[in-house]
Design goal:
Radius of gyration: 25 Å
Strand content: 25-35%
Shape: globular
Strand order of the largest sheet: 4-5-6-7-8-9-10-12
Mean pLDDT: 96
Structural class: alpha+beta
Number of helices: 10
Low-confidence stretches: none
Distance between the termini: 40 Å
Helix content: 10-25%
């Protein structure tokens, strides 16, 4: 590859290689797509008519510990960018350090919460030091992928929607200067909402300002023009769909309405990044959460679903939707569409139903699955040195016999409570109860609290979101001290029995099955009759099932499967679910609620 000028700004115009240029970009996240499908999804957004792709880089996905940085396999961002470049696509990179993106902790690493958290997303010296160490590793990789070095990267973001969070120009300047000092010489930009206060808090002098919105392009660009009279018009996030929380309906946006808004953007002479062009999946523990506050009437904590379909033009499993075809028609009026036929539909499995056999109760295998800690008081995951997993808090309680109220404070985010091995109740974050009424037999009992964390808050002022128990446990009014805490990351299930077993212990139960396939293909897994579960296919944690909905199937991409026998493990969190797994050929993301406006 020969060095080429990247994107440059000439007053109110964007130039590419010295010529006026319109960016039509597709937001697509490598970390939400199986690597075996990166090229397929890139080909699909290219067929949409996009000349550019945009991706975040989630810090926590690459740096699971302060002294570990991974860029192998699924984390090989250089390979993903290279795939895009090989298809003739430019690339916009948004390296954080905060990305939001409905991703756990907004992309910040959990270990920032291991001690008293530094001031996040500000010029706190400890936070800046952690960012600098990360950038020392990440940014040289991006720098060598820039157009000036013969690569496809043409622009890099300084921070993400900072004007919606804070006002610290020193922090933004530190990030900008850190990018340039480490070799970034391409176009730098910020992206924010278009309200005057968003732009005032999130922009930097001399750095391209872009705006994010889903409709009312005229109003958004008028606000940008007022703030930056001579700047190019650029919508860095055109929200053509939306994400889902558990317990809500599947959000969507009507294709004709979204296409009309896209036309308004392009007719204004602006550049655009379609967020999302392809959403993908929040595999594993990576789904984030929102938190609306603590005022009466607020929903409070809202965990995001495993699916990140986003009602995007290219669906979660690669479908070319009605929105894809309408968008392509609009885009084709402003930029040249690629030659050739549209990509073929991805292959799907033939449906089948298989029996799940119970093999082990989770609480019977704690010692094999967990790292164990002894603490005076309950502590959250992060202070125990872990980022994800289930947490079991155990204590032998001595108390006066008779009826008592058990108070458990700070559940993050759902807890099953056992007394002498029997389930006595379930507690959920932001759905407080006065306490659990129990009976203290013979003056003592075994107390177990199994906590299931959901995603960390990824947006707004509540992002300092530790997991597990963050408060005290009381019997009557007596605070309980002296706990055995068992952390189960569940990243290695080799110790879990594979043979069917009679289950005598209450609580979560492992169930297994083998799925026979003639060849690898996309599948959608359903667990009818099961309330809540975690599901693994051939060792990969797909994500969560919850009958609260909206999604009713989990996407299991073709590259996960192999011809022949495939191992599926289900951790039934209630332990009472049906013993059947449906392998379907079509997704079911639940009843759709079309948004009136975005």
């Amino acid at each position: 590859m020969n060095p080429q000028p990247g994107l440059t700004v000439d007053r109110d115009r964007l130039l590419r290689n010295g010529r006026e240029h319109r960016v039509v970009s597709a937001a697509i996240h490598y970390f939400r797509i199986h690597p075996g499908l990166w090229r397929d999804r890139l080909e699909r957004v290219r067929a949409l008519g996009c000349n550019t792709v945009e991706t975040y880089v989630p810090w926590n996905f690459h740096q699971p510990a302060p002294d570990v940085a991974r860029f192998d396999g699924w984390r090989d961002v250089e390979a993903f960018v290279g795939e895009a470049g090989a298809l003739g696509l430019d690339v916009i990179v948004r390296p954080g350090p905060y990305i939001c993106a409905e991703w756990d902790f907004g992309g910040l690493p959990w270990w920032l919460l291991a001690d008293d958290a530094p001031g996040l997303r500000c010029a706190d010296p400890d936070f800046l030091a952690a960012v600098d160490r990360w950038y020392d590793t990440l940014i040289p990789i991006i720098a060598r992928l820039q157009s000036s070095a013969g690569g496809p990267v043409v622009a890099v973001q300084v921070e993400n929607e900072y004007g919606s969070y804070g006002a610290d120009s020193d922090y933004l300047a530190h990030l900008r200067d850190g990018l340039t000092a480490r070799g970034i010489d391409c176009l730098l930009f910020t992206s924010d909402g278009y309200e005057s206060w968003n732009l005032a808090g999130g922009t930097l002098p001399g750095t391209l300002a872009t705006v994010n919105f889903g409709s009312r392009a005229h109003d958004a660009f008028a606000a940008l023009r007022e703030a930056r009279p001579d700047s190019p018009l650029f919508c860095m996030e055109f929200w053509n769909g939306w994400f889902d929380h558990w317990g809500e309906q599947h959000h969507g946006r009507r294709a004709d309405d979204a296409a009309k808004s896209l036309e308004e953007i392009l007719a204004a002479g602006a550049s655009v990044n379609i967020y999302m062009a392809h959403g993908g999946t929040n595999f594993g523990w990576w789904a984030g959460a929102n938190h609306t506050g603590v005022r009466q009437g607020d929903p409070g904590y809202q965990p995001t679903t495993t699916s990140y379909d986003y009602d995007a033009p290219v669906g979660e499993a690669g479908e070319l939707t009605e929105k894809f075809h309408l968008f392509r028609e609009v885009i084709g009026r402003y930029v040249e569409l690629p030659d050739g036929p549209l990509p073929a539909p991805p292959s799907r499995v033939r449906p089948q139903t298989v029996a799940l056999r119970p093999t082990a109760a989770l609480r019977d295998h704690t010692d094999a699955l967990a790292a164990t800690y002894r603490r005076r008081t309950p502590e959250p995951l992060e202070k125990l040195g872990h980022g994800h997993g289930l947490v079991l808090y155990r204590r032998r309680v001595t108390a006066a016999p008779g009826p008592a109220t058990l108070y458990i404070e700070g559940v993050r985010d759902l807890a099953h409570v056992f007394v002498d091995g029997c389930l006595v109740g379930c507690l959920e974050r932001d759905m407080p109860v006065p306490g659990l009424e129990i009976d203290v037999p013979d003056g003592e009992f075994d107390l177990e609290i199994l906590v299931e964390p959901f995603g960390r808050v990824n947006y707004g002022p509540h992002i300092t979101d530790r997991k597990g128990l963050i408060g005290s446990v009381r019997v009557r009014q007596q605070v309980q001290f002296g706990w055995d805490i068992h952390v189960m990351p569940l990243d290695d299930l080799s110790s879990v029995p594979t043979d069917a077993a009679a289950i005598g212990t209450e609580g979560p139960v492992f169930r297994r099955t083998e799925v026979e396939l003639p060849e690898s293909a996309d599948a959608f897994l359903a667990l009818p009759g099961t309330s809540r579960a975690l599901v693994w296919v051939n060792g990969l944690l797909l994500g969560r099932h919850w009958d609260r909905g909206p999604q009713r199937t989990l996407y299991a991409p073709g590259p996960l499967w192999r011809a022949g026998s495939n191992d599926v493990v289900v951790l039934d969190m209630e332990g009472t679910g049906a013993s059947v797994l449906e392998v379907r050929s079509e997704p079911d993301l639940g009843p759709q609620d079309f948004l009136a406006s975005v």
